[in-house]
């Protein structure tokens, strides 16, 4: 996603943090940082990406009989998943920027929609722009706010909603997920964690008005908006809604993850967890004091005399 104005990276490695204005320090974690406390198993995916990198590499046929070159190719495969993730994130930023500018144009506000479209074109990603525009037209989207930063004081977190809109007369909170395409040309569906992300956004207590002045308004969009995730692909966009029956469970999970994040911060602030342990010093034989040594020698001599004295 695009970088929210009041979000900054934590210098202590605790994810992205939010501040109340440009002149204040960050104090609470972002929604996505909290959700990231939930472990995700990616070993299988990383292995697949590494294997795919080698299988698809144009030089594979030429290096099969050369162990040194083959090892070099394997080393490049190690970074394949990270490279793919970085590329996908950059593409997601471009698509989110386009969607944001589309909303600003619809609101009659200054925008860079033309530049955002040209950027997608330069990367061969025009299909994503077409998918966003078709979704807007099909659903009759009436934007209210784009990239709206929200704050929850009670639990202590903040985040930025991609879009607040009215659709068919209903207030909706919308999150865009840029996704790949299946072999049959359909866009892949969002991960279910998007439900937690949208529920946390729905639980906001304030929304940002002016980041320079640090002014905020009370949350104005109620406790029961429609929560929508839009999967944006090259061939189409597909929308899903969060089942109202599961909102409570996702909210409770988010609350637990917020406590996990706080515990990590507390552990880090407590000091070093593991300390060096040197081996103990060598054991030393105690040297008797002079008086004690004389007494011991006298007793030993007496025992020897008695041992050689008849009838003793």
From TrEMBL:
InterPro entries: Restrct_endonuc-II-like (IPR011335)
Biased composition (Low complexity): 284-296
SUPFAM superfamilies reported in the protein's UniProt record: Restriction endonuclease-like
Region Disordered: start-end pairs: 277-312
Domain of life: Bacteria
Name of protein: Cytochrome
Lineage, broadest ranks: Bacteria, Bacillati, Actinomycetota, Actinomycetes, Micrococcales
